[in-house]
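User: If you would, consider this record:
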Amino acid sequence: MSVAMLSLIAGLSAVYLHLYKLGRIGPLSCSSGGCERAMFSRWGWFFGFDVATIGMLGYALLLATSLISLRPRWQDSSGPVNATLFLALSGFVFTLRLKIAEFVILRTFCPWCAISAICITVITLLAFFDWRTLPPRGPAGPISSRRSV
């Protein structure tokens, strides 16, 4: 449930940044002034896609996999947990790349991007700990049931 909540928070932040970048909302609420510099730099795009759009999609997938893993039918299945961990690790590496560019190359700070960075870091840790609680699988299947984070 924590992964779902953090995915929702970070996803809404990504929606806000994407709508601003499209010009659909008014002025950006950014106390540092670094938001626009980061968003409209070459680091605000990845293979021609807006990084906020990538964030929206990634957090939507994380939200979906985390909610699926909470359903009784999937509680003892490793599929949703593995998918959540894969998405979280991918998002963490992607965000790490962006934060390094933001701090080192652009020498700026975007608090909205920081929300995403904090959320994906915590999501990755929670997904890893959830993955570690999966029961060992043998020929007969799981030995015991796991508890969801």
Observations:
- Residues 2-134 form a domain with the de novo design (two linked rop proteins) fold (CATH 1.20.1440.130).
- The longest helix spans residues 79-105.
